[in-house]
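Researcher: I'd like a structural prediction for the single chain below. Treat it as a standalone chain; there are no partners to consider.
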Amino acid sequence: MPELRRDPVVGRWVIIAAERAKRPQDFVGLAGVPENAGRSACPFCAGQEDQTPPEIMAYRPDDSAPDGPGWTLRVVPNKYPALQIEGDLDPRGEGIYDRMNGIGAHEVIIETPDHEATLATMPASELEAMLRAWVERMEDLERDTRFKYIQIFKNVGEAAGASLDHPHCQLIATPVVPKRISEEVAGARGYYEYKERCVFCDIVRQESEDGRRLVFADDVLVSAVPFAPRFPFETQILPRRHEASFKNVVEEEIKHLALHLHLLLEKINGLLDTPPYNLVLHTAPCGQDDLAHYHWHVEIIPKLAKVAGFEWGTGFYINPTIPEEVASDLRNYSPVETLRTY
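Model: Treating it as a single chain, here is the predicted structure.
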């Protein structure tokens, strides 16, 4: 069984993933491992459903049998989960150290049967279906009182951590709120206590009025380069309507978020020759939907720079790009032909 262990200095929990345990030889030459074996061996492709655990949910025609072809989206347990859904947390101490069983959920959302699709090429209906699946899985997993946070993320490309290139994202539900999220919520709370306003709502207003870091905006969402981005071409999408939890999005926000994801990734791919990237959803911890100081948002981080010794040692990031110039490049890049058909 996997295990969670807490760093006694900074309070960060780490997952010791016993099911994924590696020996030293497993790391030798890792950078040279080919990314994928192709469609014929892809366990996420239609017709290969027996290569995954049984589906948790799927969007498919009524006459289509579970765990068979005909689906348009599938959600399955990760075959090699970082956390295990069965069991008790059993928190315990070992001297100054804290540990608990690695209880949680680890799921894969297979976004489309099309092996070659990307978020920049998928039709709006498939992107919207993916976002609705996020909501459905969050609603279901939040009923389990063992889970305190639900992280949805997408790794694209080997350099971004993907082991398969079939379009998919992942969900991990954890029994503790991750340190990064706790810090973000606490920082937003401090701003709210001082100014009596949500910092994310203020970011939306200022970026909309300023315009220099704006990439794309409409009356529902704002896509912009952060004022202090850690990485080159890092972008974020924020809703204009204040809402702490993504699971409370409305249909209009789903449709507009699908459009923003499509446009941003089309621009990033066109400018940067389709780089690997990570996409991360930030949302309120489980059971904290009513936070007045927090605001769900999406981050897209192309893998263009390495995190090295200075960053690991200090927590400072060195970004060699100017946010306003990056936003201008993205804003002005317009693949007209694709936009017309979206």
